[in-house]
Design brief:
With 156 residues, the chain is α/β, with parallel strands linked by helices. The chain has a domain at 74-150: Rossmann fold (3-Layer(aba) Sandwich). The chain has helices at 9-12, 76-88, 107-113, 140-150, and strands at residues 2-3, 19-20, 23-30, 63-67, 92-95, 118-121, 134-136. The strands form three sheets. Strands 5-6-7 form a three-stranded parallel sheet. The longest helix has 13 residues, at 76-88. It is globular, with a radius of gyration of 18 Å.
Length: 156
C-alpha cells in the first residue's frame, strides 16, 4: 500500500505500508541538514501553549516532522516505490483522495496507462474519476469493510 497520509493510522490498523508518499509525522529530520533525527515528541501530561523543537545533534538546526510541506519535493524513494507498485499491480484502489496533488496524483494514471484496472472509492467526483475504470461513490469507512466482506475476508 502507498499512502499520502502522514499519520500512522494505516499501520495501527494492521496494514503494511510500502510508501508514505507525503512523508511521516514520525520520521523526524533536521530542517537544516535534512538528516534523520532520533528526537522524539515529548510526553505531556497536560496541554502546553508552546514547545521549542528539539535540535539536531549533527548541525544544531531545528528538528521537524518528516512530512512534505508546500513547495517541497516528495520523498523520492517512497514516490518511486509507489510508482513501481502500480506498475506491478493487478488492480489499483484509489481511496479518499482529491487527485489534485501532483506528482502523487499521476500514480492512478500510470496504472491505467499500463492497462491495470483502477477503482476509485470516494463519496464525490475527483480528478481521479476520469482515470478510473470503476467508481464507487462511498466513504472508505463504508466501502472498504463491504469490499472485504464481499471478498470473504471480513474485518480482521
Amino acid at each position: 500500500m502507498a499512502t499520502q497520509n502522514v499519520d500512522d493510522l494505516h499501520e495501527r490498523a494492521g496494514a503494511q505500508v510500502l510508501a508514505h508518499v507525503h512523508g511521516s509525522l514520525f520520521a523526524l529530520r533536521c530542517s537544516v541538514c535534512d538528516r534523520p533525527s532520533d528526537a522524539a515528541y515529548p510526553e505531556l501530561a497536560e496541554p502546553v501553549g508552546r514547545l521549542d523543537p528539539p535540535t539536531c545533534t549533527d548541525c544544531g538546526g531545528t528538528v521537524r516532522p518528516g512530512v512534505v510541506w508546500f513547495d517541497e519535493a516528495l520523498p523520492e524513494a517512497d514516490f518511486l516505490a509507489a510508482v513501481d507498485a502500480v506498475q506491478e499491480a493487478d488492480l489499483v484502489l484509489v481511496v479518499g483522495t482529491s487527485g489534485l496533488v501532483h506528482p502523487a496524483a499521476t500514480i492512478p494514471h500510470l496504472a491505467g496507462a499500463r492497462g491495470v484496472p483502477v477503482v476509485e472509492v470516494n463519496p464525490a467526483p475527483t480528478a481521479v474519476s476520469e482515470a478510473a475504470d470503476e467508481v464507487w461513490r462511498a466513504t472508505a469507512a463504508t466501502a472498504l469493510p463491504a469490499l472485504l466482506e464481499e471478498l470473504g475476508g471480513g474485518i480482521p
